[in-house]
Every structure is written in structure tokens, then in C-alpha cells.
């Protein structure tokens, strides 16, 4: 099957590489010429485990190609996937300008039947707007051609994107058209063998399913952070509480880890966008607003704990940070808690010395010019002579620490652990002050 994908970001590139690997012929189109030039040279612009090998393999076999040419891209596939960004607008609603630009471009260049597949996360009703944009552009050309628009939201997570795409729990397709169902079945047949994963539904339900999934996951995190904050003030240990409630199969252990707040390119913007959709139809989504507010407050806790450890005065202090990415196994720093912390520290006159196993290039791109940031090559280099260590991301390589040695290296023995990686007793036995999240006397 010939497939075109618009957008070569985390979703577009993974979708393209996986579908090519499954035997389809795939052309990925992006307006970012620099990105496409790198991809053509075999360089992968993002860090995603396994992606480089998969792209290289499929480019070599001629199943995966890249272009900046819209005409060529539209002519290529019967399926036209839209996987471009939908960042938050000024008021938090999803900005559809990139999605609609692709739609117009498809209308501009198509000369045969196409199925336009919305893979980007888009508000309910967007498929209708995409349909309109294509129809208007075709009318402007004085051309009449059949086409369909369907919704196929993506549920992959960065860091495990290939595994999620190829072995996801479900493949949601929103359409009422039999022709679209047949083509989407063919597209996803390689992933639909062991069990029926394709879920066909109406378009609006498919669009809402994606927001509901992310809002549910964000709610679990904010709920647990709320409990952690209570535990901290009530002298309880949230890690015991977590195990205590997770053992109930109605609750489960997934996604109930307390921490320093969720970040990334999806949860913050999707919770906000769903709340703005609700507001637009006159329904106040109180739970969603609370989830967002709790998360904003949580992201500020690392700084608050540091301030407390230094009696409110952080001017001139050097703070070592382990972990810049919003979660492990990615280089993505969008909305990462580390950013809220660094920006607060700089405003307070402190200096930052930071390390992340994968996000150093991204951090340099975002903050490279900042005088009060030093990026170092190893986690242990960050702590030498620093006044405190803060852990923002739960990378596996941060979990094993010689606390006695850490005590020697830090100028002041303060650890603020935003991910509850350590046993508080072991840290304190080494003579370190340990501030974790929701762990009894850690305040
Ligand atoms: P991204 O920012 O990494 O990539 C978007 C790409 O689209 C960029 O390379 C950009 O240059 C390109 N682009 C913009 N306009 C274009 C156009 N007119 N034609 C072709 N390319 C164009 O975004 P992403 O993280 O891959 O997310 C894409 C969508 O998928 C978003 O709606 C997002 O919410 C959703 N999503 C993301 C994830 C994730 O984990 N990142 C997971 C599920 C769903």
C-alpha cells in the first residue's frame, strides 16, 4: 500500500518507519527543509529507542522516502496521514493552523481519490473542518474529486514509541465509510493478526477518545500528587500508600507514581485543550481544571523545597540537576518540570549545573546562551562542589548512588528528589538531608 505521512516529528516519523517496516511504501513529507535534509542523510533528528535502525533499514530497502514537496507527497499515497503538531493556542485550545495547512495542500494537489487520516491530536469536530478545507480548495480549483476524512488518534508514548505503535492495545478509527474501513484495515493488517485491535467508531467519538485517554492519565498523576502533598503534611509515606492502593485491582499500579508533575508535549496541552473545548460549549470541566492546577503547583514544589532547605536564600547557590527530559528515554523537554525549576532558580539568582543522558543537545538549544547554566558530560561531574542535587527525571542510571561519596562531593549535603528514587533511611544514614515527594518527615 502507498502511504503519505505529513510531519516527521515523534508521531509522523515513528508511524512512517513502522508502516514501511510492515511492508508498505511510505513517503514522509515535512516543511522543515533542515529536518528532511538530515533524514535523507540518515540522521534522526530526535532520540527514540530503536528508531534510527528502523529508519535506516527501511530507507535502504527503498520502502521509506522523505520529501519537502507537497505535490509529490499528495500524489504518492492513497492514505494521507496528517501527523503535524497541534500546539496550544494563546488561550490553551489546540492550534489547528498546521493541520488545516496540510488539508489545503492536499486539496491543492490531489488528482485522485484520497483518504485523509487525522493522526494529530485534534479537538472534536476537526475532521469536519479538514473536510471543509479540502472541499473549499478543490472548489477553488474548479475540480470535483471524491475523498474521505477519518480520525485515527495515536496513543504511542515517547521512549517506547515503536513498541507502542506495533503492539498497542487498540487502533481507533473514526469513520462511517465502508471504503475507509477497508483501506484502514489493510493499512493496519500487520498489527491486527493476533487479536482484533481495530475499533471502528464515529469520528467525533474517536477524536474525543484521544483526549479522554490523556486526561485520564493526567488525572491519575495529579491525584497521586495531591495524596503525596497530604502525606507529607500528615507524616505519612506516600510510597507505602501507593503500594497499598495499587494492590487493589480496581486501581492498579500503573501511573500512580507521585513526583514533580507531568510534562511533555501531550498531557499539559491536551488537558488544557479539552477544558477549553468544554468551556466553548458552556460546560465547566471542573475536574480537568483541577488536574491542571494541581500539576502547575506540583511543578513548583522542587523549587519550594530547595528554598526551604536554604532558608529562602538561593542567590549564588550552585544547584546540580540530574534529568532534564520530561521523562526517561526521550530527549523531549517540552513542559518538563526541569524547565520550571531552572527558570525559578535563575530568577532567584542561583546557578545550574545540569546533566541528562539524552537531552543535552535539546537543553543547549533552549537555554545554551544562559550565563547561569553549565551543561556537564556526566551525572557525577554535576555534583562536585554543588550546594544541592535535584533529581527531575527518573532515568535508570540515576537510581544507584554511593551516598557517602555524594556527601563528600556536595558542598552542602542537600538532595531534593522529585521522583522518589531512593530509600530515605539510606540517604539520611550517609548524613545527607533528603527532601522527597510525600514521604513523611521529608519536609
Ligand atoms: P512534532 O512537533 O515532533 O512534529 C511535528 C512535525 O510536523 C514537525 O517536524 C513540523 O515541521 C511538521 N509540520 C508542520 N507543518 C507541516 C506541514 N504543513 N506539512 C508537513 N509537515 C509539517 O509533533 P509530534 O510530537 O510528532 O506530535 C504530532 C501530533 O501527534 C500532535 O497533535 C500531538 O499531540 C500528537 N501526539 C503526539 C504524541 C507524542 O508522544 N509526541 C503522542 C500521541 C499523539
From TrEMBL:
The record, for InterPro entries, names: 6-PGluconate_DH-like_C_sf, NAD(P)-bd_dom_sf, UDP-Glc/GDP-Man, UDP-Glc/GDP-Man_DH_C, UDP-Glc/GDP-Man_DH_C_sf, UDP-Glc/GDP-Man_DH_dimer, UDP-Glc/GDP-Man_DH_N, UDPglc_DH_bac
Per UniProt, the keywords (alphabetical) are: NAD, Oxidoreductase
Known EC number(s)?
1.1.1.22
Q: Does the keyword Oxidoreductase apply?
A: yes
Reaction it catalyzes: UDP-alpha-D-glucose + 2 NAD(+) + H2O = UDP-alpha-D-glucuronate + 2 NADH + 3 H(+)
Q: Which SUPFAM superfamilies match?
A: 6-phosphogluconate dehydrogenase C-terminal domain-like, NAD(P)-binding Rossmann-fold domains, UDP-glucose/GDP-mannose dehydrogenase C-terminal domain
Residue span(s) of domain UDP-glucose/GDP-mannose dehydrogenase C-terminal: 320-424
Q: Does the keyword Oxidoreductase apply?
A: yes
What the entry lists under PROSITE patterns is as follows: PROKAR_LIPOPROTEIN (PS51257)
Q: Which domain of life is it from?
A: Bacteria
Q: In which pathway does it act?
A: Nucleotide-sugar biosynthesis; UDP-alpha-D-glucuronate biosynthesis; UDP-alpha-D-glucuronate from UDP-alpha-D-glucose: step 1/1
Its EC top class is oxidoreductase
Q: Which family does it belong to?
A: Belongs to the UDP-glucose/GDP-mannose dehydrogenase family.
Name of the protein described by the UniProt record? UDP-glucose 6-dehydrogenase
Question: What organism does the record attribute this protein to?
Answer: Salinicola endophyticus
Amino acid at each position: 500500500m502507498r502511504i503519505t505521512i505529513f510531519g516527521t516529528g515523534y508521531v509522523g516519523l515513528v508511524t512512517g518507519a513502522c508502516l514501511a517496516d510492515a511492508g508498505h511504501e511510505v513517503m514522509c513529507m515535512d516543511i522543515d527543509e533542515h529536518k528532511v535534509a538530515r533524514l535523507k542523510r540518515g540522521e534522526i533528528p530526535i532520540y527514540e529507542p530503536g528508531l534510527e535502525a528502523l529508519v535506516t533499514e527501511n530507507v535502504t530497502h527503498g520502502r521509506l522516502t522523505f520529501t519537502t514537496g507537497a505535490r509529490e507527497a499528495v500524489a504518492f499515497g492513497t492514505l494521507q496521514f496528517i501527523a503535524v503538531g497541534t500546539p496550544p493556542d494563546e488561550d490553551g485550545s489546540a492550534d489547528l493552523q498546521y493541520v488545516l495547512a496540510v488539508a489545503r495542500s492536499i486539496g491543492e494537489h490531489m488528482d485522485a481519490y484520497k483518504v485523509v487520516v487525522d493522526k494529530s491530536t485534534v479537538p472534536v469536530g476537526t475532521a469536519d473542518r479538514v473536510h471543509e478545507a479540502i472541499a473549499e480548495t478543490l472548489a477553488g480549483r474548479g475540480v470535483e474529486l471524491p475523498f474521505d476524512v477519518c480520525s485515527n488518534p495515536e496513543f504511542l508514548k515517547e521512549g517506547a514509541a515503536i513498541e507502542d505503535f506495533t503492539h498497542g492495545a487498540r487502533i481507533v478509527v473514526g469513520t462511517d465509510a465502508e471504503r475507509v474501513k477497508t483501506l484502514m484495515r489493510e493499512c493496519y493488517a500487520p498489527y491486527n493478526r493476533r487479536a482484533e485491535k481495530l475499533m471502528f467508531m464515529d469520528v467525533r467519538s474517536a477524536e474525543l477518545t484521544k483526549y479522554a485517554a490523556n486526561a485520564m492519565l493526567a488525572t491519575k498523576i495529579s491525584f497521586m500528587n495531591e495524596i503525596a502533598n497530604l502525606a507529607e503534611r500528615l507524616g505519612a509515606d506516600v510510597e507505602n500508600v501507593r503500594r497499598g492502593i495499587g494492590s487493589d485491582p480496581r486501581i492498579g499500579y500503573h501511573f500512580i507514581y507521585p513526583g514533580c508533575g507531568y510534562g511533555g508535549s501531550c498531557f499539559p496541552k491536551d488537558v488544557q485543550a479539552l477544558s477549553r473545548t468544554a468551556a466553548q460549549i458552556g460546560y465547566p470541566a471542573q475536574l480537568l481544571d483541577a488536574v491542571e492546577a494541581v500539576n502547575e503547583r506540583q511543578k513548583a514544589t522542587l523549587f519550594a523545597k530547595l528554598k526551604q532547605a536554604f532558608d529562602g536564600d538561593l542567590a549564588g547557590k550552585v544547584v546540580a540537576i540530574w534529568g532534564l527530559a520530561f521523562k526517561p528515554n526521550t530527549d523531549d523537554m517540552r513542559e518538563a518540570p526541569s524547565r520550571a525549576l531552572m527558570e525559578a532558580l535563575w530568577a532567584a539568582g542561583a546557578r545550574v549545573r545540569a546533566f541528562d543522558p539524552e537531552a543535552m543537545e535539546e537543553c543547549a538549544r533552549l537555554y545554551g546562551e544562559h550565563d547561569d547554566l553549565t551543561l556537564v558530560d556526566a551525572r557525577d561531574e554535576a555534583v562536585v562542589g554543588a550546594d544541592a542535587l535535584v533529581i527531575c527525571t527518573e532515568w535508570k542510571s540515576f537510581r544507584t548512588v554511593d551516598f557517602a561519596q555524594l556527601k563528600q562531593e556536595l558542598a552542602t549535603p542537600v538532595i531534593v528528589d522529585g521522583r522518589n528514587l531512593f530509600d530515605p533511611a539510606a540517604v539520611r544514614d550517609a548524613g545527607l538531608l533528603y527532601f522527597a515527594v510525600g514521604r513523611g518527615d521529608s519536609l
